[in-house]
Structures are given as C-alpha cells and as structure tokens.
Amino acid sequence: MRILLVGARGMLGRRLETALAGIGDVIPVARSGTSVTLDVADSTAVDALVRGFAPSLVVNATAWTAVDRAESEPESAHRVNAIAPGALASAAAAVGAAFVHVSTDFVFDGAIGRPLVESDPVNPLSVYGRTKEEGERRVRAAHSNALIVRTQWLYGPDGRHFVGTMLRLAAEGKPLRVVGDQFGAPTCTVDVAAAIVRLVRAGVTGTVHCASQGEVSWHGFAEAIFRLAGVEYRVESIPTSGYPVPARRPARSSLRNRIMEVTIGDDMPMWQDALAAYLATTATSST
Ligand SMILES: NC(=O)c1ccc[n+]([C@@H]2O[C@H](COP(=O)([O-])OP(=O)(O)OC[C@H]3O[C@@H](n4cnc5c(N)ncnc54)[C@H](OP(=O)(O)O)[C@@H]3O)[C@@H](O)[C@H]2O)c1
C-alpha cells in the first residue's frame, strides 16, 4: 500500500512515519526536510501532489499548532487547520484513497464535567479550536469515509512538549507555576501512532477519540513528571486566571475512546504508565 504522509516532520508525524511503515510504503511529505515537499496551504499544489502519487492512503498530520499565536494570526491558522484538510481529503477522494486526519480535544469547551465521547457536542473556545473543528467538517464533506482521530496533550520522542519543557526548566532551576484547574489526559505520540495504524488496518472510519486513560491537571502532570524522573522539584499550583494567555482552553477535556472500545478495543495505556515508559526510554537513550 502506498501511503502519503503529510506533516511527516511534526511531533506526531515522525512517529506516524515509523508506525505506518509496518503497513505500507510511506512517502513522507513536509514543508521542508523531506525529498517531497508541500505547503498544504497551497490547494493547487495539494491536488497535484496527491494525484501525482495516486496513493491508497493519505494521512494528514499537519496543523497550525501555535494555539496562542492563532488568536492574532487567525487567517494563517484557518488556511492550515481548516482549508488544507478539506483540500487534502478532496484530493484523496478524487484518487480513491482512504484519508486519515488528526484533530484535537480543543474542539470542545470542556464544560460537560466528564470524559468526552465522540458524539458530544463541539464548542471550541479559541481560534485554534474553531479552525480545527472547521477542518473536521470540511474533511467529512469532502471524503465520505475519512477517519478523524482526536487526541490531546501530546508528548513523545520528537519535538517540543510539556514534558521536555518541565525537565529543562527544572534543570535551569527556574521556579515552576503550573495551572491546576485544567484537566486532560497526557498522551504519548508513540501510542497514538500505533492506534492509528490499528484503526486503519481494521478499516474504522468516522470520528474517533484516541487518548491515554485517566485524567490529571497540568500541575498534577508536572508533579508526576518529576516523581517518575526521580527529580525533586517544587511545582506551585495556580489557577487558570493566574496564567493569562491569549487563547481560552477547555477546563476538562479528557477524551474517552468509546469508538475504539467498540471497534478495535481500547488498548491505550493509563497516562501514568505511558509517561513512565516514555521517561524510561529517554533515560536509557541519554545514558
Ligand atoms: N501537540 C498536541 O498536544 C496536540 C494535541 C491535540 C491534537 N494535536 C493534533 O495532532 C496533530 C499533530 O500535531 P503535532 O503535535 O505533531 O504538531 P507539530 O509538531 O506542530 O506538527 C505539525 C506539522 O505541521 C506542519 N505544517 C504546518 N503548516 C504547514 C504547511 N502550511 N504546510 C506543510 N506543513 C505544515 C509543521 O511544519 P513546520 O515545522 O514546517 O511548521 C509541523 O511539522 C495536529 O493535527 C494537531 O492539531 C496535537
């Protein structure tokens, strides 16, 4: 199977490249750093590239992920998060390819007060969330059996993320004040990539939640990072109001993987187990 992976140099994209290699020949595509390059904001180029390779699967791991900057640059976020997924899905449909798109818990407002299932109503609070939600709708309109995978609070072997930032700031001796009233499920990119491969193999389509089990606040997550890394460090818990940022975040947006439960089985780990496994790997690779 020929797989066109767009966004192959992102945090999740790099893990997807490895995982998808188990089910086909992956053509990694990115804005730069790959032999095939693409700006997904250029719909004509998107169409030409997909038609040119005629893959049987297109996977979109691109996004404008600068959540706060999106508030001041909404057009740029809209081009990448809303228009581009629609163009990619449409091009995939035109060549008869399956399509996988990655989305986010930020499509929800987080006000329901329990882990969110796929059928819960969306109500994004930020430009990032709104553009991602529009991207989902454009994908559904352009491709009749796309797979849309919503995930959250990602970290992993690649890219910049909360786990790396916490450990770096502590190593620099910086005082840490972390929000204690926003809850979600920290999720490792390795686990999401593996789950996406299982979903593709099983032919699951529609909107699917894919996050670690359990939930924690950012403050609790920070404390767990230090505990599991064997680092003694004090982290002060602050309310959302004590850390003003441009984009509003959902208060409780942990995802329940209900569709995975009833289709392929939900084998996503508890967030603490995934974090421990990840930290063990980084400790091994740095010795
Ligand atoms: N990170 C999280 O916590 C999180 C949570 C929930 C959902 N998600 C979703 O997971 C998916 C993967 O995100 P990630 O965390 O891996 O983000 P990431 O590391 O920022 O990767 C996104 C990739 O998209 C690429 N990209 C952006 N604009 C592009 C353009 N115009 N043309 C081509 N490529 C472009 C970026 O390339 P450049 O490096 O060249 O900009 C980057 O490599 C996204 O759909 C995101 O919304 C992420």
Which structural category fits the helices and strands?
alpha/beta
> What's the CATH topology label?
Rossmann fold
Helix content: 25-40%
Give the number of DSSP strands.
13
Strand order of the largest sheet: 3-2-1-4-5-6-11
Largest sheet: 7 strands, parallel
Number of helices in the DSSP assignment: 9
Structural account:
The strands form four sheets. Strands 3-2-1-4-5-6-11 form a seven-stranded parallel beta sheet, with helices on both faces. Strands 7-10 form a two-stranded parallel ribbon. With about 290 residues, it is an alpha/beta fold. Helix 4 (about 125-140) links the parallel strand 5 (about 100-105) and strand 6 (about 145-150). The chain starts with a strand and ends with a helix. The protein is globular and about 55 Å long. The model has no long low-confidence stretch (mean pLDDT about 95). The protein has one domain (about 1-160, about 185-215, about 255-270): 3-Layer(aba) Sandwich (Rossmann fold). It contains nine helices and 13 strands. Helix 1 crosses helix 6 (about 190-200) and helix 7 crosses helix 9 (about 270-285). Helices cover about 40% and strands about 15% of the residues. The structure holds NADP nicotinamide-adenine-dinucleotide phosphate (NAP). NADP nicotinamide-adenine-dinucleotide phosphate (NAP) binds near residues 9, 31, 61, 63 and 104. NADP nicotinamide-adenine-dinucleotide phosphate binds near residues 9 and 11.
